[in-house]
Design brief:
21 strands, nine-stranded mixed β-sheet, alpha+beta, 26 helices
């Protein structure tokens, strides 16, 4: 009895309550497939920067570091596994060949290693750290093979491994390859394709040959199953309705005709087109903007305050329109009529003078509790007076919003740039080629550098290095130096003021060379030249050149005469050759923005300045001193005299970093050589002019005609900058032509006069030769 009770209690033990859910195995696979599909979609969106966040950014960075460019393949692999699991959820008949899965993994790692193997060993680690190439996995495998068997041996081993694993993944064997090669040899040996009525022959199981039926495919009986032969005889093209990997359709004569036609088209000069980079930066590199909500109630209240304030001063007026922009709101004011008694005693209705409204600017600022207020008297081309009041909440105008606008997409120019939004919130774009040059001025922190970065981003977004080349000058060394390494640059960013003159001289020489080339081909401008080259020889097309100078005041201080002369000559003549300039300065005074420079820069942008005098220097009128800063600007176009108030578009440092990273990776992928030595280095800068024997001889002949000389004298007579003249004076002192500096700004005595000049030259010539 005791034994029976013990057995009963032992049988009751497994009836304890189980923890968890009982899910059918098919449903489990479906859930796992959906989770993998969602994970793959999240990884794909993360890699393209669509879902920024702490977790997603860390996940994307980790995947890029491990797999490099192969990270973009992983989401699609996840999608394939998800589809396989969902399909298995319906039926368990599909089997997974784990050998093929393992072979696919080996082939993927082999491809990552090959990507790094074609990269120089010195740059492989840097590329892996940047999340490019084959990532750390490809770098580690390629480095291992490179150190063991050398670069060539590593390439041979990796290619052999790929040739071994690829047939395994496709399910091919030596039998399939033999059948495919034999079928190809049989087809290529036929002189003419077989007639449709001629019966085809397929190999039988016993090795004999039997005629195939001529009935349509739907009426043909399925051939009997054939056992797999031990040898490698050719197999039929179709067996039991399933394709066989070993039989590949041979190349027909139609394919040969198409190939010959394509070759003939390439050799035709008229149809040759220029080789251009197919990939341009995606729009996802830029971020969306945050637009502030427009408060209609607040705007109506301000309109009533404006009308009441003017009415208290005896000025009847009515607000007839309200334009809400990202930074300011413009109230369109229609002046009313007042009764005035004339000298003959008759009362007449006269319209209010706009000067009376403009005189009440400070009263309106007090009533609206907003400053500064800008009054347009009147709005150009409109019968209203514009009163621009700052918004309480400011919207950030993102560059991506302007790039997605219709006004930007409709412009066909390659040099189109995004400016921002006007007072009504409409996107404003411009064509740098039609300006043809742009002058930007504004106080520190007003938005000049952000505007230049937005212009560069627009140019890099729309143009490949074959279409556009850039020259950047950044004496401040903090704004444009981050663009070093992109393939568009003709040379590294110029940060030395002494090198700028040589750079501008090279641009002038390039302009003259292009004019000579235009005259040879009998064309007028760069567009006509490129069009002619596309019809004849697409490889000789000419790129545009954009010169960007972030601080003009520093250059005018170092070498004012040469800088002004070179800039003026380029501004006057360089438009037809496709050379354009964008110049910015934070000190818009008459000694920096001279009359010659301003006359040749009809398109100008003024951000907030410190005084109305600076506003008149830039725009020839007041108004820029009342701007709000942080991108608020007045734009004067070359084809219109009226000023447009815009809120400049904002591009962040992260967006620029992604754009620069895209072009650097593109340069590595295309094996494009990044310019390390600028083309103007051979011309010599100011730092090497002191060794120029010709200028020293010229200065010697000049100063020996006088008793005393000075640096300003050399600067004025030779037409050179102050630093160059100072170094030239030191050279003359070292040669004994002039005396030592006496201090106090005094001129120096000339030691070598006309009577002993020949003796001095006779003594100095052997020394220089030694």
């Amino acid at each position: 009895m005791a034994t029976r009770r013990a057995r009963e209690q032992k049988g009751k033990q497994p009836t304890l309550p189980q923890i968890g859910l009982k899910i059918d195995p098919a449903r489990q696979r479906e859930i796992a497939g959906l989770i993998l599909f969602a994970f793959g979609g999240l990884v794909l969106l993360t890699l393209f920067g669509v879902t920024p966040g702490i977790l997603t950014n860390s996940l994307g960075a980790l995947v890029k570091l491990l797999f490099g460019w192969g990270a973009f393949v992983l989401p699609f692999v996840t999608f394939g596994v998800s589809a396989l699991l969902l399909r298995r959820g319906e039926s368990n008949e599909l089997k997974i060949s784990w050998g093929r899965v393992f072979a696919a993994e080996i082939l993927f790692a082999d491809a990552l290693a090959l990507i790094h193997l074609v990269t120089p060993a010195s740059n492989a680690g840097v590329l892996a750290d940047a999340g490019g190439g084959g990532g750390y996995i490809g770098w580690a495998i390629s480095t291992l093979f490179r150190s063991v068997v050398g670069p060539i041996g590593a390439a041979a081993v990796l290619v052999l491994l790929a040739l071994i694993t690829a047939p395994i993944i496709l399910g091919l064997s030596t039998t399939h390859l033999y059948n495919w090669s034999r079928a190809l040899a049989q087809r290529s040996g036929e002189a003419t394709p077989p007639a449709p009525a001629k019966p085809r022959t397929v190999p039988a199981s016993a090795g004999g040959v039997k005629p195939a039926p001529t009935a349509p495919p739907s009426a043909r009986p399925a051939p009997p199953p054939m056992p797999r032969p031990s040898a490698a005889p050719p197999q039929p093209a179709a067996t039991a309705g399933r394709p066989v990997f070993g039989v590949k359709p041979p190349m027909t004569k139609v394919t040969s005709v198409k190939t010959a036609t394509a070759a003939q088209t390439i050799l035709t000069p008229r149809n040759r087109t220029r080789k251009r980079a197919p990939a341009t930066p995606p729009l996802d590199l830029f971020e969306q903007g945050s637009e502030a909500k427009y408060g209609a109630t607040d705007a109506n209240r301000k309109a009533r305050v404006i009308e009441e304030t003017l009415s208290n001063f005896g000025i009847p007026a009515k607000v007839i329109e309200i334009n809400a922009g990202p930074t300011i709101t413009q109230f369109g004011l229609e002046p009313g009529f007042v009764a005035r008694r004339s000298s003959d005693g008759v009362t007449r209705q006269r319209k209010v003078s706009v000067s009376r409204i403009a005189a009440l600017q400070h009263d309106l600022e007090l009533a609206l509790a907003a400053a500064p207020i800008r009054i347009e008297t009147p709005v150009p081309g409109r019968p209203i007076v514009g009163i621009e009041v700052p918004n309480e909440s400011v919207s950030v105008v993102a560059l991506r919003g302007i790039l997605e606008s219709d006004s930007f997409k409709k412009k066909k120019s390659r040099l189109k740039i995004a400016l921002g939004q006007d007072v009504s919130g409409a996107a404003m774009t411009a064509d740098l080629g039609g300006m043809p040059h742009l002058l930007i001025a504004g106080a520190t922190g007003s938005g000049k550098s952000v505007c230049i970065n937005a212009i560069i981003a627009c140019l890099l977004y729309d143009n490949s290095p074959d279409d556009l080349r850039l020259i950047m000058v950044d004496p401040k060394r903090v704004e444009l130096v981050n663009f070093n390494g992109i393939p568009h640059l003709l040379g590294p960013v110029v940060v030395n003021s002494e090198e700028v003159v040589a750079c501008l001289r090279w641009v002038v020489r390039e302009m003259d060379n292009r004019f000579t080339l235009f005259a040879k081909h009998k064309v007028r401008n760069i567009d006509a030249y490129n069009e002619k080259m596309n019809q004849t020889d697409g490889d000789n097309t000419m790129p545009y050149i954009i010169v960007l100078i972030d601080e003009l005041a520093d250059l005018m201080l170092a070498a004012p005469d040469e800088t002004e002369k070179l800039l003026t000559r380029l501004a006057q003549m360089a438009r037809a050759t496709g050379i354009h300039m964008v110049i910015a300065t934070q000190r818009p005074s008459v000694d920096v923005v001279t009359g010659l420079i301003k006359a040749n820069f009809p398109s100008r942008i003024s951000f907030a300045v410190t005084s109305s005098v600076d506003s008149r220097v830039v725009l020839d009128t007041i108004g820029a001193e009342k701007l709000l800063g942080r991108g608020d600007m007045l734009y004067m176009s070359s084809d219109s005299s009226k000023l447009l108030r815009l809120q400049g578009c904002f591009v962040s440092d992260d967006e620029l970093a992604r754009l620069v990273h895209f072009w650097r990776e593109k340069a590595i992928t295309d094996m494009r050589e990044i310019a390390q030595e600028p083309p103007w280095k051979a011309m010599g800068g100011d730092s090497k002019d002191d060794g120029d024997e010709a200028i020293v001889q010229q200065a010697t002949e000049l100063v020996r005609q006088y008793d005393r000389t000075s640096i300003s004298f050399l600067q004025r007579k030779l037409g050179i900058g102050y630093p160059r003249a100072a170094r030239l004076m030191d050279e003359l002192e070292s040669r004994g032509v002039v005396g030592a500096d006496e201090g106090g700004g005094k001129s120096r005595p000339v030691v070598v006069q006309d009577e002993d000049a020949k003796q001095f030259e006779a003594e100095e010539t052997p020394k220089r030769k030694r």
